[in-house]
Structure formats: structure tokens, C-alpha cells
Design a protein that fits this description.
Layout lengths: L3 H10 L7 E5 L2 E6 L13 H9 L4 E4 L5 H8 L4 E5 L2 H10 L4 E3 L9 E6 L13 H10 L1 E12 L23 E8 L2 E2 L3 E4 L3 H10 L2 E8 L4 E8 L1
Parallel strand pairs: 3-4, 3-6, 4-5, 6-7
Antiparallel strand pairs: 1-2, 1-8, 7-12, 8-9, 8-10, 11-12
Helix pairs in contact: 1-4
């Protein structure tokens, strides 16, 4: 990985913001991801993110922390937060912004236990593919303290396949419709494509039940997204 995401965060933090990130998928065209949004404060966050932060308790793991927005908010509220990300640039920015405990780490390599595990901004994306969901959920489950919770958001992107007549053009032989190839570019460079998974709530709930987790929908967002809480059965 070139870590173009991390480079963009570093540029913005250092006052060198000249252009935004460009994202696309195998079913969508190029779209700008404004860098200021990646540094948003609590007031600018979507409702489901605000709800998730308000539900946090105990020792917290912020998975895919990015620039550290969620960690900083929780840290300022007095919580003990560990922030992790696989982007070296993101980790550097989070540290410079004041996140106390931040580490460059894949969640599958995490071994500590937490009362709240936070996966926001389409937290199911890191699962990559439907057939890997159980593996990730089992690992996340192993990181929970007694009475712990996982707060995760995602979207049902079925709407992206809808045609003008209200029908759907999904290829039923192509696998789960939420499995996407995700592309990112910055300053004329292209990142290596990665797998990214959007899970509808019922599919997430079924996956949770197979690994011994109870899945509850907490709130629907403004655009086919939702926040869920997972706890041990």
C-alpha cells in the first residue's frame, strides 16, 4: 500500500491541502472525499456516530482511527482510549493531534481486552468479504471484557443497484452485493485497490448469531446506514 490516505491526512494537518482524495468502487464513479471532513469535530459528525460515542463506556478500542476524531472526543471526556490504524500517516497525524495511546496495528493483531470496541465510518468495511466476517467477529469477540460491547456501523447499499423502474440489476451469481472493490487516488497517484464490505443489518445479525454474539440495531442513519451494538450472548 502506498498509504495515500495517510499522506493526504499529513498534508492537510501540515497546511498543504491542495486537493481532496478521490474515491470510487466497481459500481460507482469517482467522488471527492473532502479532507476537512476527515478532521471533523463532534458537531459535524453524522447522528449515528454521535450516538455511538455517547454509548461508549469503560476502556475503548477505536479501530481504524484515521485522524483520531473519535478518540480525541472520548479522550477529552475522560475515557481510556486505544486508537489503532494500519495507515502510518494516520497514526502520525493522530499522535500529533494529541491522541495519547495510538498504535499502527491491524485489528487482527490486537490482543488486549476492552469494554467498548468502536468501528465507525462503515466499520464492516475492514471485513473485506462476506466469507471473512465470522473470522473477524470471532476475533473481536475475543477482545471483549465481561459485559463488553462492539459498536459498529454500515450501510445497506442495495439502493445502488436500483434501476429507473424500481427493479434491481444485481447479478445473483456474483456473490453478495455489498462486496466492493474500493479505489482511492490522491494527487494523480492511484492506491492499490482493496476489498471493502458493506453489510445490510439482517446479514450482520445472522453472522453475529453464528459466532455467539447478539446484534441489536441502535439507530438508522439518514441514508441507508445504521448503527448496531454487538454483545456476548
Amino acid at each position: 500500500m502506498k498509504d495515500l490516505f495517510g499522506q493526504a491526512l499529513l498534508d492537510y494537518y501540515n497546511g498543504q491541502h491542495a486537493e481532496n482524495l478521490i474515491t470510487s468502487t466497481n459500481i460507482s464513479d469517482d467522488d471527492e472525499l473532502p479532507l476537512p471532513y476527515l478532521f471533523r469535530g463532534f458537531k459535524a459528525m453524522p447522528t449515528i456516530e454521535k450516538t455511538a460515542l455517547k454509548l461508549c463506556r469503560g476502556r475503548i478500542l477505536d479501530v481504524g482511527c484515521g485522524a483520531g476524531n473519535h478518540s480525541l472526543y472520548l479522550q477529552n471526556k475522560g475515557f481510556n482510549v486505544k486508537a489503532i490504524d494500519i495507515s502510518k500517516g494516520a497514526i502520525e497525524v493522530a499522535k500529533m493531534r494529541g491522541v495519547s495511546h495510538v498504535e499502527g496495528l491491524d485489528v487482527l493483531d490486537e490482543v488486549e481486552r476492552f469494554d467498548t470496541i468502536l468501528l465507525l465510518m462503515n466499520g464492516t468495511g475492514i471485513f473485506q468479504e462476506l466469507n471473512k466476517v465470522a473470522h473477524y467477529l470471532n476475533h473481536l469477540k475475543s477482545l471483549l471484557s465481561s459485559g463488553g460491547q462492539i459498536l459498529i456501523d454500515s450501510s445497506d447499499i442495495k439502493y445502488m443497484y436500483e434501476d429507473d423502474d424500481g427493479g434491481y440489476w444485481m447479478d445473483l451469481n456474483a456473490g453478495y452485493y455489498g462486496e466492493l472493490d474500493y479505489y482511492l487516488s490522491y494527487k494523480g497517484e492511484d492506491e492499490i485497490a482493496m476489498k471493502w464490505l458493506y453489510l445490510d443489518f439482517e446479514t450482520l445479525k445472522t453472522a453475529c448469531e453464528t459466532v455467539g454474539l447478539q446484534c441489536e440495531k441502535i439507530e438508522d442513519g439518514a441514508h441507508f446506514d445504521y448503527l448496531a451494538r454487538l454483545v456476548l450472548i
